[in-house]
C-alpha cells in the first residue's frame, strides 16, 4: 500500500470494466424508463442511482489500491461489524413493507443485509484459506463456517427477508462445494440438506412465506393476491415479443400493473420494452461478466484470491439467477434484486465493491505472495 | 483440480443462462401472443357511449320527441383532496341538502375508485354554468352529458309513446336485450318499447388506456355512437293536442282514424302519464304510488285497455245486422210507448214518454231503445254477434301496442261455454242496445265506425307510417292493412250513414251540439251504465257518486258525403254521450278541418258550452 506498484496499472482488467459498464449502462437506461413517471419522489431515482455509482466507483478505487490480502486480517472485525449492524437493524431498523431491513443514516438508508452478503464471502474465503490443509475438509471442519453463515442467516431471515437469507446459504454451499471436501462429507451434506427441506417448510417458514411458495406453484389460484406479482411479471415479459414495445412504451410497467418495477422486477421492464432481442443481449453481457469472474478466479495468484473471486462470482450469479428465475415465473417471489439492474443503493454499492475485489485480484495476479 | 472445479462452475453458469434464455424464448416468442393479449386486456378499458335515441315525429314530420343533453353532476373522490369542503360547496350550488349528496356517496363507496359517483341528475343550465365557473374550487367535480328524451309537446300522446326506464335484471335475461348492459335505458311502454330495436341506435365505444387502478391515461380510439332511427307516426300532434285539451279534467279516451287507411290520427287516454317524471330513467316511488292509486287510473291506456259497454253506439251494429239480414226494411216501424214488456220484465226506453211510431231513420237518430229491442228480438243474439264480430268487435284490433284488450261480444255458445248457462231471450234485448255482457274499447268502436262509413272495409289500426335512418333514408314503410270486408250490404251502409248524420244535424238528434256549419258530421251517442239503474234510482244527476255515473260515448265521422276521419270519444262517468263526449269530437273535427283549410280558425277558440239535453238511458 505504501508504494503503489506501477505495474498494477498495466494489469488493470479492462475487460471486466467494460463488461460492468455495459451492464450498468443498460441498468441506468432501464431505470430511467421504469421511474420517469414517478412523482413525489424528490430527486429522480436515476440520479440517485448515478450517485450510488459514483460512491461505488470511489469504493472500487479504494479497493483496488490495497492488496486484497489485507482482508485476511480484517475479516473478523468486518464480520463482527456486520453482525452488529444486522442486530441494530432488527432492533431499531425502519420497517418497510413488513420487514425491518433498513438503518436510517439520514442521507442514506442502509440495508445491512446487502453488505452482509459480501462480508460473508470474505469471511468464508478467509476461513477456508486458513484451514485448508490440502487433505480435504471433514464434516467437523465445516461446523465453524456453517455457524458463521448461520448467524447472519438467522438475523436476516428474522427481518424477515428469507430471500437474502437463502442467498447466504447458496453462497455458503457454493463456496463449500468449491473447496476440497472429503467424499463422505459431501454425501452426508447432500442427504442432510435434502432432508432438512420439509422440516424447514413445516417449522421455519412463516405462513406468508409458505403462501408465496404455494402461489408460485399455482399463481392462477390467487390472481389478485400474492400470485399477482408473478402473473403480471410474466405478462410483462411475454408481451415484449421479439423486439419489445419500445423504450418507455411498456404498458405493464408504465401503467403500474407491474409491481416493484424499478427494483425486483426491473428486468421485466427491460424484457417488455426491448423484447427477446434486448433480453438476449442483456443476458449475454451479464453472463459474460460472470464467466469472466471465474476466469479471474482461476488466474488468481494465490488460493485466497481464488476463493475470494469464486465467492464474489457465486454471490453475483446467485442473485442474478434467483432474480431472473423469479421474474420469469420459475421461482417464487423472494425479493432478491438483480445486481446492477435493480435500483437500490445498498445492493449496488455492495455489488460494485465485490466487482472491485475481482479487479483487485485480477490486477495482482502476477505479484508474488508476500 | 482447481481447473476442474472452475469448469464445473462454468458449466453450471452456462447451463443456467441457457435455462433462462429458453424460458425467455418460451414466454416471449412461443407464448408471446397470448401474453400480449393479456397485456392489452390489462390496459384497455372499454367505455360505452350512449347513442342518441331516434326521434319520434308526427305524420307531418313535426318532431314530438327528440333528445336533449342531460347534464349530471359527477364526482371523482380521488381528485378531491378535501372532499368535505367540496361537497359542502356543491350542496350549496345545487341547492340540495348535504345529506342527500352524502347518501349518494355512501351508496357508491363499494365501487372501484376510478368510478365516478353521480350526485345529481339533469341539472339546469344555470347550475351547470355555476359549477363550470367554480371548477377550480371544486376539484373532482365534473359534468357528465348524456342524451335523454325531450318531450316537445309535454305529455301529449303519453300512452302511445310510452317512456324509458333503466333496463331491469329480468329484461337483461331476455334475448331481445342481449346487447344491453345494466344501467342502459330501454323503452318500457308504448312505441318506445315496441320499436326499441329501431330507436335505440348503436352505442359508441371509447377505448381508454387505464393504469392498474383503472385511472384513465389517454384515449386510444373512439367509436362514435350511431343515433337511432326516426319513427314517423300516423299521429297528427295538432289533432292530438286538440283532443287532449278538449278532454282536460276528464278521464277517458279519444281515438281518431283515417277511415280509408286505418291510420290513427289521435290516440289519447286521459289523464295522461307524467312523461317528464320518467325522463330521468327512474320514477320516484311516491309519484308511482300516486299514479297507481289515482281513481282516474292514468296508468291505463283507455283507448285499447278500457273495456266499456258501448251503449247506444252499438245500435249501429244492430241496425246493420237488421237491414242486412232483412229482418226489417228501412221503412219498418215500431211503436215506442216508452218501454217494452218482454217475458215478465219491462224494458224501458231512455225517453220515458216514448217516441211514438218510429221508423229506422228516426230510431237511430233519436236512439229509440224500444225499436232496437224489437229488432234485436227478431235477429237473435247470434246474428248480432256475427255482425259485431265482422266489425272487429270482441277481439283485439291487432294494433302494435301491448296489452290490448279485446272486449266481449256475447253469443249463445259463449254463454254456454263461459257461464255454463243457457241464453235468456231477454238478454238479447240488452245486447241489442249495447248493454249486458257487451263491452268494447274506444279503438274498436272507432274502427267499426270507419268501416261502416268507408264502404265496408275493416282496416287494422296503424300508428307508424315509416321508419327512417338518421341520414333520411327510409328503412321500413308500413302500408295499410285491410282485414277484409265487413258483413252488410252497400244499401245498409248508406242508410246507417244517413241516420247518423241526423243524430248530429236533425232537430231531434241526440248530438246536435257537435254540428259544425261548414262540415256535415255524422255520429252516434251512447251511454254506458256502470251500475244497475235501481242503485241510483231517485238520485239527481249530481247526487250520483262519480264512480257510479254512466260513461259517455260518442262515435262519429266526417265529412258525411265522403268520410275521411272517424272520431270516437269516451268520457268515463261523463253521463251524457252528446254533451260530455260530443264536444270533444267536435273539437277534433274542427281542428282537422281547420288544418285542411275547410274551416277558418276560430279566433276565440272557446269550446261550445254544454247544451242541456235530454238524458239517454
Summary?
The complex is a heterodimer of chains A (370) and B (617). Chain A has 370 residues and is an all-alpha fold.
Query: CATH topology of the largest domain in chain B, what is it called?
Result: Beta-lactamase
Question: Radius of gyration of chain B in whole Å, from Cα?
Answer: 34 Å
The major β-sheet of chain B equals: 7 strands, mixed
Topology order of chain A in helix (H) and strand (E) letters? HHHHEEEHHHHHHHHHH
Secondary structure topology:
The complex is a heterodimer of chains A (about 375) and B (about 625).
Chain A: H1 6-10, H2 14-35, H3 45-64, H4 71-92, E1 94-96, E2 99-104, E3 109-110, H5 113-131, H6 143-157, H7 162-178, H8 183-204, H9 207-217, H10 227-238, H11 251-254, H12 266-298, H13 303-327, H14 345-363
Antiparallel strand pairs in A: 1-2, 2-3
Helix pairs in contact in A: 2-3, 2-12, 3-14, 4-5, 4-6, 5-6, 5-7, 5-13, 5-14, 6-7, 7-13, 10-12, 12-13, 13-14
Chain B: H1 2-30, H2 32-43, E1 44-49, E2 56-57, E3 63-75, H3 83-94, H4 98-107, E4 117-120, H5 125-133, E5 141-151, H6 158-161, E6 164-166, H7 169-172, E7 185-187, H8 190-194, H9 196-199, E8 204-210, E9 216-223, E10 230-233, H10 237-246, E11 252-258, E12 264-270, H11 275-278, H12 285-293, H13 302-305, H14 315-325, E13 334-336, E14 339-342, E15 345-348, E16 356-358, H15 360-365, H16 369-379, H17 381-390, H18 412-419, H19 425-432, H20 442-453, E17 457-459, E18 464-468, E19 474-477, E20 482-485, H21 490-505, E21 522-528, H22 533-536, E22 551-558, E23 565-571, H23 577-595
Parallel strand pairs in B: 2-10
Antiparallel strand pairs in B: 1-8, 2-3, 3-4, 3-5, 6-7, 8-9, 10-18, 11-12, 11-23, 13-16, 14-15, 17-20, 18-19, 21-22, 22-23
Amino acid at each position: 500500500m505504501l508504494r503503489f506498484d506501477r505495474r498494477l496499472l498495466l494489469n488493470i482488467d479492462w475487460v471486466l470494466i467494460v463488461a460492468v459498464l455495459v451492464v450498468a449502462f443498460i441498468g441506468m437506461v432501464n431505470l430511467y424508463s421504469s421511474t420517469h413517471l414517478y412523482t413525489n419522489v424528490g430527486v429522480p431515482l436515476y440520479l440517485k442511482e448515478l450517485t450510488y455509482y459514483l460512491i461505488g466507483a470511489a469504493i472500487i478505487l479504494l479497493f483496488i489500491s490495497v492488496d486484497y490480502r489485507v482482508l485476511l486480517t480484517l475479516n473478523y472485525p468486518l464480520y463482527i461489524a456486520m453482525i452488529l449492524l444486522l442486530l441494530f437493524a432488527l432492533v431499531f431498523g425502519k420497517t418497510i413493507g413488513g420487514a425491518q431491513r433498513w438503518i436510517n443514516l439520514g442521507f442514506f438508508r442502509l440495508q445491512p443485509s446487502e453488505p452482509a452478503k459480501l462480508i460473508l464471502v470474505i469471511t468464508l474465503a478467509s476461513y477456508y484459506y486458513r484451514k485448508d490443509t490440502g487433505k480435504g475438509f471433514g464434516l467437523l471442519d465445516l461446523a465453524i463456517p456453517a455457524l458463521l453463515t448461520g448467524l447472519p442467516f438467522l438475523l436476516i431471515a428474522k427481518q424477515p427477508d428469507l430471500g437474502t437469507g437463502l442467498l447466504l446459504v447458496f453462497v455458503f454451499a457454493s463456496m463449500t462445494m468449491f473447496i476440497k471436501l472429503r467424499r463422505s462429507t459431501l454425501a452426508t451434506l447432500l442427504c442432510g440438506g435434502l432432508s432438512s427441506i420439509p422440516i424447514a417448510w413445516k417449522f421455519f417458514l412463516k405462513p406468508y412465506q409458505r403462501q408465496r411458495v404455494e402461489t408460485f406453484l399455482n399463481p392462477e389460484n390467487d390472481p389478485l393476491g400474492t400470485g399477482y406479482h408473478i402473473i403480471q411479471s410474466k405478462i410483462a415479459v411475454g408481451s415484449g415479443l421479439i423486439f419489445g414495445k419500445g423504450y418507455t412504451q411498456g404498458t405493464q410497467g408504465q401503467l403500474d400493473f407491474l409491481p416493484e418495477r424499478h427494483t425486483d422486477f426491473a428486468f421485466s421492464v427491460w424484457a417488455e420494452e426491448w423484447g427477446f432481442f434486448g433480453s438476449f443481449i442483456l443476458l449475454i453481457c451479464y453472463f459474460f461478466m460472470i464467466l469472466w469472474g471465474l476466469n479471474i478466479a482461476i488466474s488468481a495468484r494465490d488460493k485466497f484470491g481464488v476463493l475470494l473471486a469464486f465467492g464474489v462470482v457465486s454471490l453475483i450469479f446467485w442473485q442474478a439467477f434467483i432474480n431472473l428465475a423469479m421474474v420469469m415465473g420459475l421461482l417464487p417471489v423472494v425479493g432478491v434484486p438483480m445486481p446492477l439492474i435493480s435500483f437500490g443503493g445498498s445492493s449496488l454499492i455492495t455489488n460494485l465493491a465485490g466487482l472491485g475485489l475481482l479487479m483487485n485480484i485480477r490486477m495482482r495476479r502476477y505479484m508474488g505472495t508476500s | 483440480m482447481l481447473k476442474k472445479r472452475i469448469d464445473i462452475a462454468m458449466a453450471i453458469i452456462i447451463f443456467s443462462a441457457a435455462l433462462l434464455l429458453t424460458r425467455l424464448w418460451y414466454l416471449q416468442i412461443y407464448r408471446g401472443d397470448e401474453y400480449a393479449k393479456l397485456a392489452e386486456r390489462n390496459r384497455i378499458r372499454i367505455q360505452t357511449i350512449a347513442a342518441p335515441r331516434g326521434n319520434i315525429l308526427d305524420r307531418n314530420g313535426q318532431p314530438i320527441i327528440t333528445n336533449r343533453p342531460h347534464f349530471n353532476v359527477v364526482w371523482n373522490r380521488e381528485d378531491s383532496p378535501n372532499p368535505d369542503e367540496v361537497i359542502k360547496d356543491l350542496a350549496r350550488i345545487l341547492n340540495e341538502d348535504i345529506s342527500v349528496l352524502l347518501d349518494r356517496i355512501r351508496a357508491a363507496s363499494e365501487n372501484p375508485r376510478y368510478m365516478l359517483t353521480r350526485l345529481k341528475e339533469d341539472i339546469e343550465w344555470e347550475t351547470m354554468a355555476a359549477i363550470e365557473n367554480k371548477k377550480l374550487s371544486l376539484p373532482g367535480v365534473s359534468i357528465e352529458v348524456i342524451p335523454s328524451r325531450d318531450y316537445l309537446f309535454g305529455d301529449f300522446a303519453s300512452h302511445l309513446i310510452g317512456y324509458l326506464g333503466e333496463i331491469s335484471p329480468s329484461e337483461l335475461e331476455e334475448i331481445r336485450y342481449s346487447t344491453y348492459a345494466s344501467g342502459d335505458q330501454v323503452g318500457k311502454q308504448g312505441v318506445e318499447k315496441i320499436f326499441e330495436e329501431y330507436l335505440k341506435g348503436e352505442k359508441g365505444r371509447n377505448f381508454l388506456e387505464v393504469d392498474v387502478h383503472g385511472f384513465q391515461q389517454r384515449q386510444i380510439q373512439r367509436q362514435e355512437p350511431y343515433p337511432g332511427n326516426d319513427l314517423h307516426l300516423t299521429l297528427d300532434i295538432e289533432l292530438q293536442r286538440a283532443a287532449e285539451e278538449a278532454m282536460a279534467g276528464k278521464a277517458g279516451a279519444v281515438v281518431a282514424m283515417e277511415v280509408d287507411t286505418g291510420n290513427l290520427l289521435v290516440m289519447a287516454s286521459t289523464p295522461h302519464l307524467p312523461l317528464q317524471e320518467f325522463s330521468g330513467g327512474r320514477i320516484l316511488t311516491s309519484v308511482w304510488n300516486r299514479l297507481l292509486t289515482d281513481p282516474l287510473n292514468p296508468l291505463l291506456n283507455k283507448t285499447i285497455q278500457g273495456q266499456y259497454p258501448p251503449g247506444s253506439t252499438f245500435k249501429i251494429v244492430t241496425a246493420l245486422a237488421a237491414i242486412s239480414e232483412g229482418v226489417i226494411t228501412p221503412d219498418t216501424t215500431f211503436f215506442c210507448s216508452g218501454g217494452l214488456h218482454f217475458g215478465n220484465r219491462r224494458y224501458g226506453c231512455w225517453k220515458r214518454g216514448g217516441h211514438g211510431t218510429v221508423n229506422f231513420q228516426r230510431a237511430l237518430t233519436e236512439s229509440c231503445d224500444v225499436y232496437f229491442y224489437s229488432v234485436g228480438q227478431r235477429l237473435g243474439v247470434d246474428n248480432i254477434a256475427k255482425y259485431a264480430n265482422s266489425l272487429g268487435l270482441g277481439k283485439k284490433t291487432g294494433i302494435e301496442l301491448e296489452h290490448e284488450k279485446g272486449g266481449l261480444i256475447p253469443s249463445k255458445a259463449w254463454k254456454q261455454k263461459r257461464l255454463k248457462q243457457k241464453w235468456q231471450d231477454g238478454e238479447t234485448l240488452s245486447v241489442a242496445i249495447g248493454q249486458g255482457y257487451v263491452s268494447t274499447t274506444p279503438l274498436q268502436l272507432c274502427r267499426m265506425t270507419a268501416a261502416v262509413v268507408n264502404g265496408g272495409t275493416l282496416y287494422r289500426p296503424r300508428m307508424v307510417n315509416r321508419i327512417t335512418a338518421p341520414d333520411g333514408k327510409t328503412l321500413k314503410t308500413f302500408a295499410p292493412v285491410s282485414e277484409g270486408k265487413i258483413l252488410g250490404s252497400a244499401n245498409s251502409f248508406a242508410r246507417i250513414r244517413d241516420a247518423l248524420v241526423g243524430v248530429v244535424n236533425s232537430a231531434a238528434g241526440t248530438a246536435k251540439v257537435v254540428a259544425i256549419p261548414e262540415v256535415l258530421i255524422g255520429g252516434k251517442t251512447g251511454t254506458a251504465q256502470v251500475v244497475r239503474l235501481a242503485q241510483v234510482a231517485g238520485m239527481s244527476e249530481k247526487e250520483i257518486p262519480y264512480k257510479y255515473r254512466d260513461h259517455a260515448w260518442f262515435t262519429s265521422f266526417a265529412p258525411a258525403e265522403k268520410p275521411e276521419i272517424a272520431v270516437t270519444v269516451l268520457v268515463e262517468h261523463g253521463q251524457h254521450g252528446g254533451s260530455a263526449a260530443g264536444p270533444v269530437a267536435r273539437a277534433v273535427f274542427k281542428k282537422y278541418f281547420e288544418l285542411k283549410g275547410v274551416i277558418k280558425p276560430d279566433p276565440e277558440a272557446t269550446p261550445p258550452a254544454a247544451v242541456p239535453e235530454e238524458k239517454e238511458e
